[in-house]
Q: What sequence folds into this?
């Protein structure tokens, strides 16, 4: 019966061949570490956010007089409303944790390099869409942090030359963040995930075309590629289990860990809280914004700090295969960059002040310097490595894994 | 599969069955909070009773009150209506009138047609549902039309001679 | 506990000098059911005249172990599904104190320090040199010293400390009445996930063993 049903479908839709091509015959490098689990986790979180979001939307009211109350109604009166809301609020933070790790893995192992530039860029678009969705979603509880976060970020667009004020007014639909703003943010917060899903499909189509990168940084020979199913389905599901244990630990036992105290106060357009901070995942970029004394300069720097990742395939001029594993200078720079981002995040969480401001400026300079020195550093590193002779491990890998075809061409 | 892997294969099959069962059970359980969240919320479930002051309702008049969002007809019946109802057994869903009232002069029924949920309009003889023409008498019993059952009598009690509490 | 509270906490540990009279008192809050019920009685009699707890209903108090009769007693003639609204109308509050006294439903979560803030505020009143009542935590607060802390002697203060502690415990409950249910479900969920993840690990190991 089942076979006949599948045969019926296969005549009309390439079901079996699709599963074969994309899962059971889809070749994946066998040496992928657990760092390669995070893309799958991001996909899981996208589904979780969409599902929990749809159910929250059934009870949420995007009206300045009702929004805060409706969230409390969800928390107290809706059956399991507290669970769905905490899944969604914790899920937002978890999404960024997972995506940032996914990006850090890409940077460390050089997965952005040819031929995976389009994967990296579609990922960039996904990051920006995720940030937009998170930012708009954060306004919806209509607490003090929600309100003043939206007020400050929409004000940033006022730095646009000539038409800044008009743009801010247009974005808000009001002279301050108000009812119109809340309503449109709700509509867009519901819309953006559809774009994200579309972009994820592009990301995955590109992935299945170029195949996964792997820790060695070079394409492995056929003998070292294994089918995605069952090997990586098993591995991804196990990783999901570990992730869920940690995630549920937060949801059930520390759900307010990522929620600012001031967001439990209803939005008050007449009074700014004494110390406003963005959500933790925006902190490094917020510091970069504050490090530049000029508003327009700050906005441009903040925008560049996100967009500059897209330039990585061009900035990295090294022809040594792989990422940081075989490249000591690049590796050192990667770790310096990670520490620098942590410093930026810490500075962003602190009130503006003399010393923290100076640290923030220094960290901002280091942030951009890391990118801008990469073309020179990578070239220099390559010369240095070749002069010393490639590490035996890398040479051995190159010898055993390189397909014979390029060699023939070289001859 | 190679033959010497047969034993392992069996063990893996067993393991797969167990894990699959546990996993599917977990997914099913995880669906419950979402399904449950669409049920009436706590504040809807614990909506209270509705008090109706009968003193202002003249004989022959009807007061419509909301109870848990539903319309409830409170009818002050005249002696003639009471007498007429006591003689009739109703229509397709026969029920004696005295089983449907606590005090003969006060009829309390949920004003929702048992057919498809419209609110019937008051007529001289009882009610006429505007949607599909069901006819109810002054005891709320269906006489003709598609409605299958009589108008529902909500739970209520007399808190005083001129005050009832519905719910 | 928010991320920023966590960072503040770390900063406080490194800067001991910050623990002055205006700092939060780090007391252990008694969350026992009996303490919560006494706290509920304190809050409904002492705080509710001016402050609302509008996200709470009298029926919710049943979950603290009160009998329906006791809830009727606490509700002062309100229906069980009525919200805990201040006895004083908002406009009178605004006239008397310059602003409507804030709603207390979420107070235990809405200030840095959470319950410690509430407790420290209630026990932070003192009489300054001019004889005016003031508060260490919230200078020139408009709320009166409702427990009479500033004029109490040491023996009375021991009683008031318990009262403030219990009221705080009730406010913590009021800010998150589903906490107990949440944690209970959390234990089951995590236990289940540990089992499932263990099984998935075995499968993963078994599948990968085929590669040799």
A:
């Amino acid at each position: 019966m089942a076979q006949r049903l599948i045969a019926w479908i296969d005549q009309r839709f390439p079901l079996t061949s699709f599963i074969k091509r994309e899962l059971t015959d889809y070749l994946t490098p066998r040496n992928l570490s657990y760092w390669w689990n995070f893309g799958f986790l991001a996909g899981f979180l996208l589904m979780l956010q969409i599902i929990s979001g749809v159910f929250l939307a059934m009870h949420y009211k995007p009206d300045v007089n009702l929004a805060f109350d409706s969230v409390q109604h969800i928390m107290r009166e809706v059956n399991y409303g507290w669970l769905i809301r905490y899944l969604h609020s914790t899920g937002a933070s978890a999404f960024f944790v997972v995506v940032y790790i996914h990006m850090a893995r890409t940077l460390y192992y050089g997965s952005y390099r040819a031929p995976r530039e389009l994967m990296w860029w579609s990922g960039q678009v996904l990051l920006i869409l995720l940030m937009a969705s998170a930012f708009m979603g954060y306004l919806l509880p209509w607490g003090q942090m929600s309100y003043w976060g939206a007020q400050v970020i929409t004000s940033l667009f006022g730095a646009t030359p000539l038409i800044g004020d008009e743009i801010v007014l247009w974005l808000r639909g009001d002279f301050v963040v108000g009812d119109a703003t809340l309503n449109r943010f709700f509509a867009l917060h519901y819309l953006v995930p559809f774009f994200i899903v579309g972009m994820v499909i592009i990301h995955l189509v590109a992935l299945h075309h170029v195949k996964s990168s792997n820790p060695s940084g070079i394409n492995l020979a056929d003998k070292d590629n294994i089918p995605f199913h069952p090997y990586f389905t098993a591995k991804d599901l196990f990783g999901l289990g570990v992730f869920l244990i940690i995630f549920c630990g937060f949801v059930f036992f520390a759900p307010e860990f990522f929620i600012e105290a001031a967001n439990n106060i209803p939005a008050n357009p007449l009074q700014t809280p004494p110390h406003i901070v963005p959500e933790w995942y925006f902190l490094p970029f917020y510091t970069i914004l504050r490090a530049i004394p000029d508003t327009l300069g700050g906005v441009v720097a903040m925008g560049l700090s996100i967009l500059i990742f897209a330039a990585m395939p061009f900035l990295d001029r090294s022809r040594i295969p792989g990422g940081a594993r075989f490249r000591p200078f690049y590796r050192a720079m990667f770790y310096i960059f990670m520490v620098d981002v942590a410093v930026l995040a810490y500075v962003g969480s602190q009130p503006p002040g003399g010393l923290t401001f100076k640290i923030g400026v220094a960290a901002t300079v280091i942030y951009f310097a890391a990118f801008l020195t990469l073309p020179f550093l990578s070239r220099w590193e390559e010369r240095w490595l070749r002069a010393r002779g490639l590490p035996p491990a890398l040479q051995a890998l190159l010898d055993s894994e390189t397909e014979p075809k390029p060699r023939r061409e070289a001859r | 599969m190679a033959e010497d892997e047969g034993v392992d294969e069996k063990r893996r099959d067993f393991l797969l069955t167990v894990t699959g069962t546990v996993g599917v059970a977990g997914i099913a359980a995880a669906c419950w909070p979402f399904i449950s969240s669409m049920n009436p919320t706590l504040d809807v479930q614990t909506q209270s009773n509705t008090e109706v002051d009968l003193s202002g309702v003249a004989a022959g008049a009807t007061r419509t009150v909301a109870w848990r969002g539903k319309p409830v007809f409170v009818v002050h019946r005249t002696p003639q209506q009471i007498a007429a109802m006591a003689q009739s057994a109703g229509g397709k869903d026969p029920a004696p009138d005295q089983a449907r009232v606590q005090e003969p002069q006060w009829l309390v029924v949920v004003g929702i047609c048992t057919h498809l949920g419209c609110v019937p309009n008051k007529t001289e003889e009882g009610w006429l549902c505007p949607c599909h023409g069901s006819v109810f008498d002054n005891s709320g019993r269906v006489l003709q039309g598609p409605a299958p059952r009589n108008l529902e009598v909500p739970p209520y009690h007399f808190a005083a001679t001129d005050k009832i509490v519905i719910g | 506990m928010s991320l920023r509270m966590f960072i503040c906490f770390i900063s406080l540990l490194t800067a001991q000098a910050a623990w002055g009279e205006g700092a939060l008192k780090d007391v252990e809050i008694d969350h026992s059911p009996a303490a919560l019920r006494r706290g509920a009685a304190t809050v409904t009699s002492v705080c509710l005249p001016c402050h609302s707890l509008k996200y709470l209903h009298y029926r919710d108090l049943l979950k603290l172990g009160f009998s329906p009769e006791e809830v009727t007693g606490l509700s002062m003639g309100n229906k069980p599904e009525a919200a805990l609204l201040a006895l004083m109308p908002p406009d009178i509050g605004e006239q008397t104190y310059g602003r409507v006294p804030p709603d207390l439903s979420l107070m235990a979560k809405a200030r840095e320090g959470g319950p410690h803030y509430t407790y420290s505020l209630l026990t932070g009143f003192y009489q300054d040199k001019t004889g005016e009542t003031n508060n260490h935590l919230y200078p020139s607060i408009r709320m009166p010293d409702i427990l009479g802390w500033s004029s109490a002697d040491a023996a009375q203060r021991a009683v008031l400390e318990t009262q403030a502690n219990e009221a705080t415990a009730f406010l913590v409950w009021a800010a998150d009445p589903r906490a107990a249910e949440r944690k209970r479900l959390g234990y089951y969920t995590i236990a289940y996930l540990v089992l499932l993840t263990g099984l998935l690990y075995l499968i993963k190991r078994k599948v990968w063993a085929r590669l040799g």
In short: The two ends of chain C are 47 Å apart (CA to CA).
